[in-house]
């Protein structure tokens, strides 16, 4: 009981004592109400029931998180579509289990492979978390080292001719391209000598060209062409035109930061996996018993993609981390 002195020095009971009691009762009621709300919320996590199985809001949200570029105002409609797909999936799963398809060796093998992939990816992501963000000095150094991507960035209008040819035909093709007065003259040479070829054209900003070609194209003048080896023969790429569209360091900074962070993670993960391989006891058997170096040298190398292959549009700011990755020749 809380008491106080009145004006005459006598003790009197304060009305706050009653209020405290009422507040305690009210708080208890609020807590009880909150518990009821939590139960209702917990129940509301079920989005649908398919026979005896539940599809939850968490499942829908997980799929939503995988949707790149989804706008907030699209989330509700997308969630409803995802729910319908999950219902169809659940029906298929239930029928498959009824038919005992989940016990078939092929299906079990696929599930185990998926499990291994998920666990290995989780480890890789965890390893990458140790990488620190690049510093402003790192970002500036990269910006200054890649003028063709940034300060001297150009938009290229390209015409490409993909030629089927043998390695021994490359010198003649290179000579003819250098001697031709126009690209049409070179095309006529291809026709006259029975070469199979196809043509494409495209407009590409600098960041959508592979790194090994970017420096070459940055030195070309409009109207000049270059011949490049390809998996099936050769590519002739003509710079039909270009325009300067530089990107300053402030605009490029977020993309460079993300790119450098991704690169640091990649290198750390490669180093970590290499250390794990060194520490592990790995024995190749059967037809795989050849030395790893010999097997690696026999593996085919991937050919660069055609210049005119479709590519995603540049971001509003002019560059994105994925754009720079393409410029760096990273898939």
The share of residues in extended strands comes to 15-25%
What is the strand tally?
Answer: 8
State mean pLDDT (0 to 100 scale): 80
Quickly count the domains.
2
Radius of gyration: 33 Å
Alpha carbon gap, first and last residue: 74 Å
Order of helices and strands: EEHEEHHHHEHHEHEEHHH
Helical stretch tally: 11
Poorly predicted runs of 5 or more residues: 1-42, 300-318, 327-331
Q: Label the overall shape.
A: extended
Estimated helix fraction: 40-55%
Report strand order across the widest sheet.
Answer: 6-5-8-7
Main sheet record: 4 strands, antiparallel
Helical/strand content category = alpha+beta
Offer a few descriptive terms.
about 325 residues, alpha+beta, 11 helices, 8 strands, about 50% helix, disordered N terminus
Describe this entry's structure for a reader:
The protein has helices at residues 16-44, 57-65, 75-98, 105-128, 136-145, 170-179, 183-192, 211-218, 249-279, 292-298, 321-327; strands spanning 3-5, 11-13, 46-50, 53-56, 154-164, 197-205, 225-229, 233-244. The protein has 331 residues and is of the alpha+beta class. The chain folds into 2 domains: 3-44; 129-295 and 305-331, no CATH class.
Write the layout of secondary structure elements.
Blueprint: E1 3-5, E2 11-13, H1 16-44, E3 46-50, E4 53-56, H2 57-65, H3 75-98, H4 105-128, H5 136-145, E5 154-164, H6 170-179, H7 183-192, E6 197-205, H8 211-218, E7 225-229, E8 233-244, H9 249-279, H10 292-298, H11 321-327
Antiparallel strand pairs: 1-2, 3-4, 5-6, 5-8, 7-8
């Amino acid at each position: 009981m809380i008491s106080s002195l009145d004006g005459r020095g006598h003790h009197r009971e304060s009305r706050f004592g009653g209020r405290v009691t009422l507040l305690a009762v009210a708080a208890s009621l609020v807590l009880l109400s909150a518990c009821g709300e939590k139960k209702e919320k917990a129940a509301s996590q079920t989005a649908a029931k398919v026979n005896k199985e539940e599809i939850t809001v968490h499942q829908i949200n997980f799929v939503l998180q995988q949707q790149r570029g989804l706008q907030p105002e699209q989330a509700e409609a997308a969630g409803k579509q995802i729910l319908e797909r999950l219902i169809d999936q659940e029906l298929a799963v239930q029928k498959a289990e009824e038919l005992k398809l989940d016990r078939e060796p092929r299906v079990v093998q696929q599930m185990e492979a998926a499990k291994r992939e998920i666990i290995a990816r989780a480890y890789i992501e965890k390893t990458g978390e140790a990488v620190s963000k690049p510093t402003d000095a790192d970002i500036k150094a990269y910006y200054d080292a890649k003028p063709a991507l940034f300060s001297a960035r150009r938009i290229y209008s390209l015409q490409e001719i993909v030629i089927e040819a043998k390695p021994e035909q490359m010198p003649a093709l290179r000579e003819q391209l250098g001697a031709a007065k126009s690209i049409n003259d070179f095309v006529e040479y291809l026709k006259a000598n029975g070469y199979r070829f196809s043509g494409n054209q495209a407009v590409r900003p600098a960041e959508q060209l592979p790194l090994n070609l970017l420096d070459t194209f940055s030195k070309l003048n409009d109207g000049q062409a270059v011949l490049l080896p390809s998996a099936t023969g050769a590519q002739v790429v003509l710079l039909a035109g270009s325009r300067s569209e530089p990107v300053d360091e402030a605009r490029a900074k977020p993309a460079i930061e993300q790119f450098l962070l991704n690169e640091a993670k990649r290198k750390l993960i490669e180093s970590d996996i290499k250390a794990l391989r060194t520490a592990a006891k790995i024995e190749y058997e059967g037809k795989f018993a050849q030395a790893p170096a010999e097997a690696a040298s026999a593996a085919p190398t991937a050919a660069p993609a055609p210049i005119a292959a479709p590519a995603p549009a540049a971001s509003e700011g002019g560059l994105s981390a994925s754009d720079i990755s393409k410029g760096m020749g990273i898939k």
